[in-house]
Amino acid sequence: METFTAERLAQGFSWTECPRWHAGRFYFSDMYNRRIVSLSETGEAETIVDLNDREGLDGADVITVGTGYLPDGRLLVSSMFEKVVLAVENGKAEVYADLRDLAAGPINDMVVTASGRAYVTQLGFDLWKGEAPAPSPIIIVEPGGEARIAAGTEHLMGANGIAVSEDGSTLVTAEAFADKVSAFDIGADGGLANYRLFAQLDELPDGLCLDAEGAAWVAFPISGRVTRFADGGEVLAQVSVPQAEAGSTTACGLGGEDRRTLYVACGFEVQDHEKSRQGGQGSIWRARVSVSGGETRP
After folding, report:
1. Which residue ranges are recorded for the region named Disordered (predicted)?
2. CATH topology of domain 2-288
3. I need a labelling partner for 184 at 20 to 30 A (CA). Which of 46, 161, 199, 254 fits?
4. pTM score > 0.90 for this model?
5. Is 260 helix (H, G, I), strand (E, B) or coil?
């Protein structure tokens, strides 16, 4: 098993999530600060989307989570408690897909394919209100914003991190409350079929990403590690993050010009939004790894 040690790139954020690389730029969700942030190679932060002035639908708090770019250059952002996907253009956010009739609970991560189809995960219950975990499906958002439930995914237990393989044929997701990574074949119409086990895990997973060899990097918030699994569950590599300094490892993503830099999002406070904002303990870490992300999504 290969081992790597992460270094801190930047800190001072709320709960960080969904690290991404797009068009030569690294960015992530600074969730409770309601913004999307880009970091330079030296850790200098730039806010690229700020939703603090947005009034949430139905009075819901505006919390940014999953993101992805459409072919026309617009950035999609999932607004967790509003249960909508927003499209951002020239700094202005508008509802792209309204998922309120489809989502049982807060929506979560998202992957956008090269064709512009988005797959959105959801918790299925309200973690912040102390509700019990419940199964919930993945939601498919077609180019243009029309949305539907992905048939055959209704049994998923807290699908969280989500990614699409380099050839666009396979979708993987971390089932947080089943301690496993699962995979589906992607059909010509975007539907998901042939549900199967990708890797059985020994604790709750959060975010994940794929690399060009079809392996998955999985972030484990409880133990503060990021582990690379082959399809089938073999452990291939691990990135260590100092938990005392970083807290929980929430998500990971491959970036850099060669996509061999594994970015890791970390934080200390997920339950109390205001405490997370005020504490500013969220951080981003990175490690150089052996295999590129290639053309995988996100």
Report:
1. 277-298
2. Neuraminidase (2.120.10)
3. 254
4. yes
5. coil
